[in-house]
Write a structure and sequence with these properties.
By secondary structure, the protein is of the alpha+beta class. It has ten helices and 16 strands. Bound molecules: FE2/S2 (inorganic) cluster and fe (ii) ion.
């Protein structure tokens, strides 16, 4: 059996050419998920919605971010507002599902009503309550940011500025322009593995020839490259021989720490959001966005079917890796400096987060 390592040892960052993967304990022990919710998910910008659901005043969506209920609404001033979806009366939900054109936000439990900026306006049948002033009661605010039709929230004030995290992406992918793409469809996949297994797998093309023989023909593995930035990594490759599935051009695969992926091919954005359901389960949401270009629209169905095939291959290997990590005979293996720099980058960001825990 492997010897037990201290947290400090498991969080030590090593240069890439001598680096090892993140220790198996982080993938198989349930205690780490609570630490991750606090130190990773609550301290980063989280993809929460798309602006297509929040076009007009009063349009709103609800979501769970770092396991907390969140409500996002379009205010009369045209800007988005986000709050904890937790009523100040007895913690009921202000909204239970998405909705449109609300004039105010009325709690689903006893009907207390808030304005679109989170201020309590009226409290049903509370006339007899002494020392009760609606003017002093408001929902807890959450930071919200809109970027190219995607909506992000950050629960903590201890999160880098959004523009710092996403710096350079829009400029790099020109002539692709994410702001011209509209939401088309969501596919969700539930996996029997720790959320980080899925992220690790996304972060390297090393497995392409073995796990995805079909995709290997489309991407040019010889020039498949990984670049590292402060908060994200980019894998990219020219597209070839893809029989019209993606069109001609370049594929960009961005991973933004800790759980957002932006997969960009000509005229198309596919976002992935990886959400832990437990320490050995996660859900992966694929949202598809397209430009109005008829050529792009015409290839959407075959591209989604191809993506579904690749996902089935990734799910199978990820679930097997989880069993391997949990087997008790694996601790942390060496990383390939040429092919796994993205994994190394992700693991180091996580090590810094784990080291923060009290
Ligand atoms: S919990 Fe919201 S009105 Fe009672
Ligand atoms: Fe894969």
């Amino acid at each position: 059996m492997p010897a037990t390592k201290t947290l400090a040892e498991m969080c030590t960052e090593l240069p890439l050419d001598v680096a090892v993967a993140l220790h198996a304990d982080f993938y198989k022990d349930s205690q780490w998920l609570a630490v991750e919710q606090e130190q990773v998910f609550a301290k980063t910008w989280q993809l929460a919605a798309h602006a297509g659901d929040l076009r007009h005043t009063g349009d709103h969506v609800v979501c769970q971010i770092a396991n907390k209920p969140i409500l996002i609404v379009r205010h009369q001033d045209g800007q988005l507002r986000a709050f904890y979806n937790v009523c100040k009366h007895r913690a009921g939900p202000i909204a239970t599902c998405k909705g449109s054109a609300a004039k105010s936000l009325q709690c689903a439990y006893h009907g207390w009503t808030y304005s679109l900026d989170g201020q309590l306006r009226s409290a049903t049948e509370m006339q007899g309550a002494q020392q009760f002033d609606v003017g002093t009661i408001r929902l807890n605010d959450v930071r919200v940011h809109e970027w190219n039709g995607l909506v992000f929230v950050a629960l903590s004030s201890d999160v880098p500025a959004f523009d710092e995290v996403y710096a350079g992406i829009a400029e790099r992918i020109v002539p692709h322009d994410l702001s011209t793409m509209r939401f088309a469809k969501r596919d969700s996949y539930e996996l029997a593995c720790n959320w980080k297994v899925y992220v690790d797998n996304f972060l390297e093309g090393y497995h392409l020839p073995y796990v995805h023989p079909g995709l290997s023909k489309v991407l040019d593995y010889r020039v498949y490259d990984t670049e590292l930035f402060a908060w994200y990594s980019l894998q990219h490759s020219p597209l070839r021989n893809n029989e019209g599935i993606y069109g001609d051009g370049h594929a960009y695969y961005y991973f933004v720490y800790p759980n957002v992926m932006l997969n960009i091919t000509p005229g198309r954005l596919q976002t992935n959001r990886i959400i832990p359901l437990g320490h050995e389960r996660c859900v992966v949401e694929f949202d598809y966005y397209y430009t109005d270009d008829p050529e792009v629209q015409a290839r959407a169905a075959s591209e989604q079917a191809f993506s579904d095939e690749i996902q089935a291959e990734d799910i199978a290997i990820c679930e097997q890796v989880q069993r391997g990590l949990a087997s008790g005979v694996y601790e942390a293996g060496r990383l390939n400096p040429k092919r796994e720099s993205g994994v190394w980058h992700f693991h180091n960001l996580l090590r810094r987060a784990y080291a923060q825990q009290k």
